[in-house]
Amino acid sequence: MTSGTITADTARSRRSLLFPSVVSGLVLGVAGGLLAAFAVSRFASGDRALDQVVVAGYAGWTLCFFIGVGAFHHPVRWGFGRAEPTHREERELAGEGQGAWRYFRFTTDHKVIGIQYLITVLVLFLVGGLAAALIRLEQSQPGARFLPPSTYNTVVGVHGIIMIAATIIMISGPFGNFIVPIAIGARDMAFPRLNALSYWLLFAAIPVFLSTFALGGFDTGWTGYAPLADQAPAGMDAYAFTIVLFGISVAIAAVNIITTVVTLRAPGMRWSRLPVFVWGIMLSVLLGMIAFPSFMLAEVMVLCDRVAGTSFFVSAFGGSQWLYEQLFWFMGHPEVYVIALPSLAVVVEMVSVFSRKPVFAYRTVVGGMIGIALVGCIVWAHHLYTSGANTPFDGPFMLTTELISVPTGVVFLVAIGTLWRGKIWLTVPMLFGIGALVNFIIGGVTGLYLADVPTDEVFHGGMFVAAHFHFTLVGGMVFGFFGACYYWFPKMFGRRLNETLGRWHFWLFEIGFYGVFLPLFYAGLHGEPRWLAYIPPKFAGANLIASMFFGLLIAGVSVFGYNIVSSWRSGPVAAANEWGGNSLEWTVPSPVPLENFETLPVVTASPYDYGGEASGPEVTGPSGPVTAPATEA
Amino acid sequence: MSAVQAERHPQPVSEEVFRARRARVGVLLLILADAIMMIAAFASYGYLKALNTEATFRPAGEHAPSPAGGLVVALLVAAGAVAYRAMVVPGAGTREAGGRVRGGLALVLGLVTVALAVQCWLMAAGLSYAVPVHGYASMVILLAGLHLVHLALTAVATLLLFGRTARGLLIGRGYLVEAAGYWWYYVAVLGILVWVLGALA
């Protein structure tokens, strides 16, 4: 029986491939959604009827999608007294012998789920990127040229929330799932079924969110601020329901990843030997687990306001819009570190490998990341300086927000210290790693002005903020994601990405990125407000330049997409240890077999022990021969 | 020096020890995630009450939820948690204690089902506030609804455990009962907090 071949040799097992699968999930989900909507429409009345019908439809869709995709199979059979699944059944559930079809089923193998996440993230980036293109198109000239204002508002909201969701999962989803279990010496995640559930929750949320276009969209922007959220068209229900699904998905994924790292480390994999990347992922999902419930709760409240007539955010009836802002930003700012921690960890990981040097001050960088996670929980209210709340906590929050630059600076110091006097191999992942460091410094420094109450009063509503957070999220973190893609692609797919195309991707994206956002800094400093469909004529020049440079971003991403597809189909076969790394993922074959290790490894040293006599091999060049690192006798 | 040495090596810990540790850590993390949401809900209540926007958070005459009904739910769940600890956890997973564990699970399943039914009734009959629902009543409905979800999840988890125990399939899997117990105790504490909040408000 060969991999990639569907082994089912009877009609029954062929049917079992279709049910459960994403096909049966979609069919049942749509049927369930329509049925639930129809049932509720019989009773719904008044001005909330549409919202009630829509939310019932989403609930029906979600429940029936999960029945169809097979998420309840095991728990129900388990509860009704079925014996524990055998090892063979577990391997079947992990997709053994199902070829590409395993990517369309409730498959439990962490590597399959990692690739499912990766493809989903790329699709989300594509959709969010198209929305960004529409925004830049609209902003290229003063006046409403291409989109009506309400559509423009929806496009901005869609761009924002899709990109935020995508960046939250862009590293911890694909690489956290694929790499972390191997990097700690485990055969799979602690809870493989929960792992699949967290992915399919995300999948189920996407059609819900996209249905907003059919329901009038939402004009609140990506933050979904109340009380506007209470008054928005039914498309707002899509936003709120999506966040609830996404929040559950994030919580489940966090529980799974943390439990995996805590309980499944290989013998000898002490906390002090844990790769920095694993630390970054674990702290990121822990922070997400702490931060996300408040946002989820806020959206439950929005749904209650819209569907049941409650008044959480209606001032006239004892609610408050500030409650929404508090709950939202308790998620909203830590979320930046949820995104940043894995990205910074990837950068540190790559810098060590490509400098052929141990991580400079390993404990310090771990401490720095823990510091970011801790302080990240107490900075949110700086987003409310200009809300009118005028709380006595503005001062303390200013302090904590500035304080977080200390642990962040420590991580940067460690990355630079690792580069210092290293034998630097400037590969494509390394290029993106260095790019991320440079860009993130600009994002971080401009953030200081927004942490201070006096300067934030001036900048808060302006394009300066938009440029700042794009430098942070895209320049810092998405560059880390690109680096991770180039770094681990050979491990994930067993093929090498094209080096030349990778360099084109980097330079097109880097130049395009600066071309888009430096003019927006300029426009912001000169007073251009954000959230405007009609740009004032005095900012037309800066916006036109930004829109023109956006073409380079499109070109860079297109090169990346082409590189992925062509290399995946016909790229050169990658070596098991493509970069001469010392961490565990480089000791297993590429592509990685089911259950990862034939025999569980025993870890005897740090993954960053480069430079000693028995260090890994000299690497001769990007395509040169790379052998596995030396192992202890 | 290299980082790893791939050699034949036995499983680091026994499968049972690993499974027990995994179940414990997993349930405790789930409780942590849920507890943070509940803390956010309680904090929201305090925030809106403190702001009392335009003195409309709780208009005069806005009735509180029935303290007696809430007390019944809290007592049922607390009794369930005590029974779970006393009858189900000791000896769970052993053949000898099978009868007691089954009986205990049947009892706590009954208790949580009754609590669920009472909570549903309270929400349907006792929380009928006129629309637009003011801030206070909104928070009461939210907390009652969240508690209802907790009770439902507890009932489902207990039902699954009962189904397995009834067929003797939890022999050697006492850690599952222990881990599910953490959730039981958590929901019991939550029930008391929700009731205290309702009664004191």
Strand content of chain B: under 5%
Q: Estimate the global geometry of chain B from the Cα principal axes.
A: elongated
> How do the helices and strands follow one another from N- to C-terminus of chain A?
HHHHHHHHHHHHHHHHHHHHHHE
Taking Cα atoms only, what radius of gyration of chain A do you get, to the nearest Å? 25 Å
Largest sheet of chain A: none
Helix content of chain A: 55-70%
Report the top-level CATH class of the largest domain in chain A.
Answer: Mainly Alpha
Overall residue-averaged pLDDT value of chain A: 91
Oligomerization: heterodimer
Q: How many domains of chain A, as an integer?
A: 2
Annotated CATH architecture of the domain at 68-200 in chain B: Up-down Bundle
Question: What's the CATH H-level homologous superfamily of the largest domain in chain A?
Answer: Cytochrome c oxidase-like, subunit I domain
Number of discrete helical segments of chain B: 5
Topology:
The complex is a heterodimer of chains A (633) and B (201).
Chain A: H1 11-18, H2 22-41, H3 49-69, H4 73-79, H5 87-93, H6 110-139, H7 149-169, H8 174-183, H9 192-210, H10 228-231, H11 235-263, H12 276-308, H13 321-332, H14 334-355, H15 362-376, H16 394-403, H17 405-419, H18 428-451, H19 453-459, H20 463-493, H21 499-525, H22 540-570, E1 602-603
Chain B: E1 4-5, H1 15-51, H2 67-88, H3 98-126, H4 135-166, H5 174-200
Structure description:
The complex is a heterodimer of chains A (633) and B (201). Chain A has helices at residues 11-18, 22-41, 49-69, 73-79, 87-93, 110-139, 149-169, 174-183, 192-210, 228-231, 235-263, 276-308, 321-332, 334-355, 362-376, 394-403, 405-419, 428-451, 453-459, 463-493, 499-525, 540-570; one strand at residues 602-603. The model of chain A is unreliable at 1-6 and 613-633 (pLDDT under 50). Chain A is mostly helical. Chain A has 2 domains: 16-84, no CATH class; 85-94 and 102-310 and 318-587, Up-down Bundle (Cytochrome C Oxidase, Chain A). The radius of gyration of chain A is 25 Å and the shape is globular. In chain A, helix 6 (110-139) runs parallel beside helix 9 and helix 14 crosses helix 20. Chain A contains 22 helices and 1 strand. Chain B has a domain at 68-200: Up-down Bundle (Four Helix Bundle (Hemerythrin (Met), subunit A)). Chain B has 201 residues and is mostly helical. Helices cover 73% and strands 1% of the residues of chain B. Chain B contains 5 helices and 1 strand, in the order βααααα. The model of chain B is unreliable at 1-11 (pLDDT under 50). The longest helix of chain B has 37 residues, at 15-51. Chains A and B meet through helix 4, helix 11, helix 12, helix 13 and strand 1 of A and strand 1, helix 1 and helix 4 of B. Strand 1 (602-603) of chain A pairs antiparallel with strand 1 (4-5) of chain B, so a sheet runs across the interface.
